[in-house]
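[job 0417] fold request received: CRISPR-associated exonuclease Cas4
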Amino acid sequence: MENDDPIPLSALQHWLFCPRQCALIHLERQWAENAATADGRILHERADQPGRTRRGEVRTLRALPLRCHRLNLVGVADVVELRGGIPFPVEYKRGRPKSHRADEVQLCAQALCLEEMFDQPVSQGALFYGETRRRTEIVFDADLRALTVQVAAEIAAMLNSGTTPPPAFEARKCGQCSLIDLCQPRPLAHHPDVAGWLRRQLRD
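[job 0417] inference complete; emitting structure tokens
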């Protein structure tokens, strides 16, 4: 039976960081916090105060609920600036810009929601990083849009299957993850090959 529950926008970022982490959070409903997630939560609490302001020609909406029926996505935008009526999403992140595209995909997913909600193209947005205190502007080009749609489909397939991906231990990545004690990536990724052991015993 297919899972019709909407996919949280944060799941796309989790999936690109680690599919197993995504499943633990969004399929198994597990969570643990560390210093990094606490910093991120505090940063979002500051940004996610609902309201609207205007400065010059720019109207700013905070904590705007988002929905994309086409991809079955749901979430909340930290900030959406309306520039001449055209939405410009701004997502707040701790740390600094990353080598992978997880943050960009999450922001692009917001843009796809806004395009459906406002019925007009959203060509770019920005990521604001707490460590650098600067915005990184992101263009929603064809490659990023395709990757975002692909990731949403992969998460939907995982949720529909009800199967958590197996662990793949990566010291640097796993060391940053708040779910490491729940995931147990090192021992589970190197579990004994029971089936192989049985085959060897039967041959002997």
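[job 0417] notes: DSSP finds nine helices and seven strands in the chain. The chain has one domain: 7-203.
[job 0417] exit 0
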